[in-house]
């Protein structure tokens, strides 16, 4: 039988992962990525167990685990440094085989690219019109042009009300914990540690979309001046030019389908969600494994994509809703009474409750992929 051909539009985490899965299961794959450098290459990412296990299924889990930093200690704090809840990475590891891991996005992208033969990767753009493939994977992200073509009546992404500034420190920093999240009224500051001692920090602020600062680092130094010591130390270890600033958008209206004809939508193109659970890329990785598994049998593409849609839409939709709820409970609270009530509830919650909140989306077992 002639090799079936797949065209993947978008070479982000989702597109590369899909290409790896399809390549491993016997497809001829071409990935089109329009950007010479990915937009968020200077940021970091945390991957929960479901993301790591998806990478295992794709054959790149060992390489990513080796390059990543396991997040064993950390939790949620108040601006004066008191702990609201602690996360026990060892308990997550016992339950799911791995704690959350942190890795620079550039390192993750490199490892994913290296898992594909170089000729699979092309720089360019794609639309449905120029594809002669048996399968098109729309992995073209939040502002997916393919989604807009297929679902012209869908309202598309909406602004979440929060803007994120983030950077990787220029040098190793001495952090007390592998990760931490600090919630103050209308603002959040967090960090994840990397294997080489550097860390990625992020600051989330409630602000109108599109507001940008000439010197974002100084703005943050002022905004977080009275927060606990670690925040200032992370900002001080950062080069001003390294700060990335993005407004957070999500697909608040779920898509009616993740597949139309021979086109599968995947990752942010299908279900861009707020980053509050650190699950967007993990869900893209799950999509990639399920897509490859459903298409591995050699049956009709349309039927395989219908199964992909049936498996993935409820799952990713539920995680997106959970992420939105988590966002409302965090930095989005501004009223002092609401902040106090949330903090008291977190302080009184049994320690297992925090682990369970992370366990729920992360407890996922990949379907088997045929051996490479
Ligand atoms: P993208 O990464 O957006 O990739 C799409 C690619 O398609 C882009 O490279 C683009 O250039 C390309 N493209 C677009 N149109 C075309 C075209 N016509 N032709 C060719 N190429 C095209 N997720 C986690 O799991 N853990 C986290 O810790 C985490 N933290 C986050 C923090 C923030 C602040 C944000 C905003 C998100 C976070 N996420 C996290 C979510 C995660 O970043 C995304 O869900 C994930 O990167 C989506 O990957 P993707 O491949 O679907 O889309």
What does this structure look like?
The protein is an alpha/beta fold. It has a domain at 5-71 and 105-159 and 250-330: FAD/NAD(P)-binding domain (3-Layer(bba) Sandwich). It has helices spanning 13-24, 49-58, 61-67, 89-96, 105-114, 145-150, 216-223, 229-236, 268-271, 280-295, 301-329, 336-348, 351-362; strands spanning 5-9, 28-33, 44-47, 69-70, 73-77, 83-88, 101-104, 121-123, 135-138, 158-168, 179-184, 187-193, 199-206, 244-250, 259-260, 263-265. The protein has a 7-stranded mixed sheet with strand order 6-5-11-12-13-10-14. Helix 1 runs parallel beside helix 10. 47% of the residues are buried. The mean pLDDT is 92. Residues 9-15, 32-35, 38, 45-47, 51, 125-126, 139-142, 145, 164, 246, 248, 267-269, 275, 278-282, 284 line the site of flavin-adenine dinucleotide.
Order of helices and strands: EHEEHHEEEHEHEEHEEEEHHEEEHHHHH
Q: Total strand count, please?
A: 16
Number of helices: 13
Measured distance between first and last alpha carbons: 18 Å
Rg, nearest Å: 20 Å
Based on the structure given, which CATH architecture of the domain at 5-71 and 105-159 and 250-330 is correct? 3-Layer(bba) Sandwich
CATH topology tier name of the domain at 5-71 and 105-159 and 250-330: FAD/NAD(P)-binding domain
Approximate strand percentage: 15-25%
The low-confidence runs, each spanning 5 or more residues with pLDDT under 50, are none
């Amino acid at each position: 039988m002639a090799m079936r051909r797949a065209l993947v539009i978008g070479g982000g985490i989702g597109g590369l992962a899909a290409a790896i899965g399809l390549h491993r299961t016997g497809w001829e794959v071409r990935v089109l990525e329009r950007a010479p450098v990915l937009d968020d290459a200077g940021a970091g990412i945390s991957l929960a167990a479901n993301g790591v296990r998806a990478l295992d299924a794709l054959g790149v889990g060992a390489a990513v685990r080796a390059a990543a930093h396991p997040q064993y200690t950390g939790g949620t704090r108040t601006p004066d440094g008191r702990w609201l809840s602690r996360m026990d990475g060892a308990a997550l590891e016992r339950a799911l085989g791995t704690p959350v891991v942190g890795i620079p996005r550039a390192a993750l992208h490199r490892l994913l690219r290296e898992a594909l033969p170089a000729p699979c990767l092309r720089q360019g753009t794609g639309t449905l019109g120029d594809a002669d493939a048996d399968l098109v994977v729309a992995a073209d992200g939040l502002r997916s042009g393919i989604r807009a073509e297929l679902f012209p009546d869908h309202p598309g992404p909406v602004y979440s009300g929060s803007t994120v500034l983030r950077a990787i420190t220029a040098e190793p920093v001495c952090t007390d914990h592998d990760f931490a999240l600090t919630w103050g009224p209308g603002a959040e500051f967090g960090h994840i540690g990397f294997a080489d001692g550097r860390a990625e920090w992020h600051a989330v602020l409630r602000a109108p979309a599109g507001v940008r600062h000439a010197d974002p680092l100084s703005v943050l130094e002022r905004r977080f001046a009275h927060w606990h010591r670690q925040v200032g130390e992370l900002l001080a270890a950062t080069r001003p030019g390294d700060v990335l600033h993005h407004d957070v958008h999500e697909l608040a209206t779920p898509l009616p389908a993740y597949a139309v004809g021979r086109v599968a939508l995947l990752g942010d193109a299908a279900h861009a969600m707020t980053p509050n659970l650190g699950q967007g890329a993990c869900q893209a990785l799950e999509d990639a494994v399920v897509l490859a598994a459903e298409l591995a049998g050699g049956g009709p593409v349309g039927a395989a994509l219908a199964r992909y849609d049936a498996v993935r839409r409820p799952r990713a939709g539920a995680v997106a809703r959970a992420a939105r709820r988590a966002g409302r409970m965090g930095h989005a609270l501004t009223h002092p009474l609401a902040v106090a009530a949330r903090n008291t509830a977190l302080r009184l919650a049994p320690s297992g409750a925090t682990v369970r909140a992370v366990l729920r989306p992360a407890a996922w077992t990949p379907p088997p992929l045929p051996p490479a």
